[in-house]
Write a structure and sequence with these properties.
- The protein is mainly alpha-helical.
- It has a domain of about 55 residues.
- Helix content is about 55%, strand content about 0%.
- It has 3 helices and no strands.
- The relative contact order is 0.17.
- InterPro entries: PID_CTERM.
- Keywords: Membrane, Transmembrane, Transmembrane helix.
Length: about 90
């Protein structure tokens, strides 16, 4: 019975980690149809060639969700390994 409960929680942990990894995918978070400089209104008007170019916009934040899910999964695997080899 104790082994079944432990197996249930381990399976639940891995399913939760997998869902987090799929849900917080950094590639999806960074997807855009068009770059910022390609949008209308962000480019310098053609009638003002003598001025300096416009400064770049604010940097985009780096998503850490996918990496965090991988770290959680690795930590869970390490904990399971330690629990199995416990004397």
């Amino acid at each position: 019975m104790k082994n079944r409960i432990k197996h249930f929680f381990v399976t639940l942990f891995f399913i939760a980690a997998l869902v987090l990894f799929i849900d917080i995918n950094p590639a999806e978070a960074q997807y855009r149809d068009e770059p910022d400089w390609g949008r209308q209104g962000t480019a310098q008007p053609a009638g003002n060639p003598s001025g300096p170019p416009l400064p770049p916009g604010a940097p985009q934040q780096t998503p850490i969700g996918g990496g965090l899910a991988l770290l959680l999964a690795a930590g869970g695997a390490y904990a399971i390994k330690k629990l199995k080899h416990k004397p």
